[in-house]
Amino acid sequence: MNGLARMWTVASLELRQRVRGAAWYVLLGVFVLLVLVVTVFTTIATRNTDAPGAVLYSLIVYFVLLLGTLVTPALSGNAINGDRENGTLATTQVTLVTTPQLVIGKFLAAWITALGFLAAALPFLLFALVLGGASADTAFVSILVLAAELGVVAAVGVGVSGLIRRPLFSVVTTYLVVALLSIGSLIAFGLGGMVAQREVTVSYEIIDWEASGDEIDPDTGMPVDPVCETVVSSYSVPRFDSVWWTLAANPYVLLADAAPTHFDRHGNPDDLFGTLKLGVRQAQLPPDVDSGWSECDQAYPVDDQPTPREVIDSTVPSWAVGLGIHAALGLGLLAGAISRTRAPARRLAAGSRIA
Amino acid sequence: MSDAAPSPADIRVTDVARSFGDVHAVRSITFEARPGEVTGLVGPNGSGKTTLLLMLATLLVPDRGEIRVGGLDPVTRPAEVRRLLGWMPDVLGSWPNLTVRRSLELTARLYDLPRPAAAARAAELISLVDLGELADRPTRVLSRGQKQRLSLARALVHDPRVLLLDEPASGLDPGARVALRVLLRRLAAEGRTILVSSHVLSELDELADRAVFLEAGSTVSEERVAAARSTERGWRIRALDATALRRALVAAGVDEARIASDPQGLVVPIAGEADAAGLLASLVTAGVEVVSFAPAVGDLEHTFLDLSADGEGAR
Questions:
Q1: Chain A to chain B, count of Cβ pairs less than 8 Å apart?
Q2: B89/A21 touch (CB, cutoff 8 Å), yes or no
Q3: Which of these, A14, A53, A101, B235, could form a disulfide with A7 (CB 3.0-4.6 Å)?
Q4: Alpha helices in chain A, H assignment, sequence order
C-alpha cells in the first residue's frame, strides 16, 4: 500500500516538475489545432463515401500515435539522468522510496503525459463516431493499442534515461529507437524484399500472325491454321513474403493489424487501418509466378484475385508478436534502469557523480 | 529517541575504503559519532568527506570496512537506515518548478507521512528554516543560501535520529549561520547524532563537540591531532596602549621580530596554553591594560592548517 502511495508521489512529483508548464499546454494547443484541421479536411474529403467516420477515426488515432511518439521521448528520455544532473535523484533515493518504485513512478508520469494527447483528441474521436461508419470494436481496440504503444515509448524513454548518463544522449537514443521501429522496419522490409527477390521465368505462346495465313475463323476471330511462337521471358520479383515479419513491430502496422476490419459494400476495408492491414497481409502471400499463357490455345490464367476479406482471413495476424516485442523492449529497459539506479551503488560509470 | 539502542554510537565507521577506478577517494576512515553530540568532519578538498557521507547515506557501497548507522548496515538494510537518517548533500538540488511547500510535502509523502501530516510538517519546517515568505514560490527563485535552508528542511522532514550535513553553512549569511548553529545545537541536545562537514572552521569550532580530521582519505590519528594542537600558534593581544604592550612583550622575552601587528592588535606566537597563561600573567603584572587575549585562529583551523602543513612536509 505504501509502495503504491510512494510510486504515485514520484509520478505526481514528476508531472508537476518535468511536464506541466506553459510549454506543455502550448504544445497541446498546437496539437488540438492540427487535429481540428485534419478533422475538417477529412470530413469534407470523405463526405460522399460509405463510412466517413471510419476514415476520420483511424486518421486521428494515427495522428495521436505520430505526435505521441514524437513528443514522449523528449519528455521521458531524461527522467532519471536529468534528475541526477539536477542533484535531485540522490535526495529522492535516501527517502523510503525504493528504486523500482522510483523508476515505475517516473514511467507512469511519462505515460500519463503521452495519454494527454489522446485525451485532447477525444472530442474529435467522438465526433468521428457520431459522423457514422466507425465500428465500436475497431474504435475500442485501436484506442487500447494506441495507449499501449504510447506506454512502450514512455517505458523506452525512462529506461534509456536510467542506462545512459548524459540526458542529451538518452533523449536521442529514445528517438532512434522510435525511428528504428517506425521507419527502420519499413526500410528493412523494402530492402529485405529486394534482396530476397527471385528470378522468375515465364513462357507464353503468341500467334505469329504473318505466318498464319489469311484464313480467319469467323467465329473465334483467330487464324484457322495458327503458327504458334513460344516466347520465354524472365524477370525478378521481390519476395516480400519472406520479410513481412519485419513489419510486425512497426507501431503503425501493429495498430492496423490489431484493429478489427470492416468492409464496405465493394468488399474493401472501410478505414485506414483496414487498408494498411490488407497491404501488409498481402505481403505474406507468395507472388504469383507461374502465370504462363497461350494465345493459340486460348488458355489464359484465370484471374481469381482473392478478395480483401479472403486475404485477411487467410493470412497470419502479427500484431500480438509485435506487441510482445514492444512490451519486452519496454520492460527490459525499465528493468535495466532499475538495476543501474539501485542504491547503495557498487559501481559507478566513469566520471559520474552520484549526488 | 531510542535510548535502548545496543550501541552508544549511532554512527560507527571502521576502516572504510572506497575507490572510483584508480582514484582512492577513501582509504581508511575510522571514527564514531555519538548521540547528543555534533561531530565535525574536517579535511581539505578531496580528503574523502563527501564520499564518506555518501556511504553513510546508503548511496554508495564501501569497498572495504564496516559502517553501522544506529547499529544497522546501510548496505544490507538500507530501508531501515533511511528511516533514521537525514542527509543534506553538498550539491543543492531542488525541483525548480515546485514550490518550497510542495517540495517539502512531497518529500514527506516519500517518507510515508499521510497527506495531512505531510502538509503540517512542511509548514512547521518552513517556519523552522525561516522560508515563510518564499513558501509558495517555485524553488528556482531561491538564492543559494535559501536553497541551503530548504535542503536542511528536507533532511529534517522525517525527524531523523541521525543527521548528515555536507557543508551546511556555505552560502549562508551571518544571521542564517547563527540560526543554523542554534538549531543544530538544539537538535543535538534532543539526543540526535549530528555529523557536519565544513570548510568554515571557525563555524565548526563553535558548533562541534568533537572533530574528526581527514587527510587524503584517511582519519588522522589522535596523536597527530594532539601534537598539532599544541604547536606554536598566533595569539592576538590587544591593550589600551599598543606601545606599552609591545614594550612589555619584549620585556617578557618575546622575540620582537616575530610580533606581527594587525588592525585588531598584536599577534604573538605562543606554543601551548600554559605558555599563553604565563605571558598574560606577566603582562598584567607589568601593568599593561589588556583588553583581549585570544588565539588568532580557531582551534580547528589551527589544527587543520598545522596538519596540512605537516602533510605537505611529509610528501
A1: 102
A2: no
A3: A101
A4: 2-14, 22-45, 52-76, 79-86, 89-93, 99-131, 136-163, 167-179, 185-195, 251-258, 272-282, 308-314, 319-341
Q: pLDDT class for A274, splitting at 50, 70, 90?
A: very high
Give A17's DSSP letter: I
pLDDT for residue B7: 46
B24 in contact with A at a CB cutoff of 8 Å?
Answer: no
Contacts of B60 in chain A (CB under 8 A): 343-345, 348, 354
ipTM comes to: 0.82
The verdict on a CB contact (< 8 Å) between B94 and A96 is no
Minimal Cβ distance to A344: which of B60, B92, B102: B60
Chain B residue numbers with beta carbons less than 8 Å from the beta carbon of A5 are 109, 112
- pTM for the model stands at 0.86
Q: Is A198 within the bounds of a domain?
A: no
Q: Do A9 and B110 touch (CB under 8 A)?
A: yes
Could you tell me if A16 and B98 are in contact, meaning their C-beta atoms sit under 8 angstroms apart? yes
Nearest chain A residue to B78 by CA: give it. A344
Q: Which CATH architecture has domain B231-314?
A: 2-Layer Sandwich (3.30)
Residue B12, pLDDT > 90, answer yes
Kindly list the domain boundaries of chain B, sorted by start residue: 11-220, 231-314
Beta bridge partner(s), residue B212: B41
pLDDT of amino acid B2: 45
* Residues of A in Cβ contact (< 8 Å) with B158: 95
Q: C-alpha angle B20/B24/B27, rounded to 5°?
A: 130
Q: List pLDDT tens digits, range A29-58.
A: 999 999 999 999 999 988 887 788 888 999
Range of the structural domain that residue A21 is part of? 3-189+317-341
Q: CB neighbours of B41 closer than 8 A, spacing ≥ 6? A: B49, B52, B53, B195, B196, B197, B198, B211, B212, B214
Q: Is A30 helix (H, G, I), strand (E, B) or coil?
A: helix
Bridging pattern class, strands B210-215 and B218-219: antiparallel
Decide if A95 and B58 are in contact by the 8 Å CB cutoff: no
pLDDT category of residue A353 using cuts at 50, 70 and 90: low
> If you count them, how many residues does chain A have?
355
Asked if the C-beta of B309 comes within 8 angstroms of chain A's C-beta atoms, the answer is: no
CB neighbours (10 Å) of residue A285?
14
Q: How many domains does chain A have?
A: 1
Q: Which of B72, B37, B65, B38 is nearest to B51 (CA)?
A: B65
User: Is pLDDT of B240 > 50?
Assistant: yes
CA of B55 vs chain A CAs: smallest distance (Å): 8
Percent of chain B with pLDDT over 70: 96
**Stretch among A24-38, A170-184, A199-213, B160-174 having the lowest mean pLDDT:** A199-213
CB < 8 Å to A100, chain B? none
The answer to the question of residue A334 being in a domain is yes
B87 touches chain A (CB under 8 A): yes
A333, HSE (Cβ side, Cα atoms, 13 Å): 27
Chain A residue with CA closest to B154: the answer is A91
User: Is residue A117 scored above 70 in pLDDT?
Assistant: yes
Rounded percentage of chain A residues whose pLDDT exceeds 90: 51
> Does a structural domain hold residue A78?
yes
Dihedral angle over CA of A126, A128, A133, A135, nearest 10:
-40
Report whether A134 contacts A54 (CB < 8 A): yes
Pick the residue from chain B with its C-alpha nearest to A93.
Answer: B59
Question: Domain B11-220 is of which CATH architecture?
Answer: 3-Layer(aba) Sandwich (3.40)
Beta-carbon separation of B106 and A13 below 8 A? yes
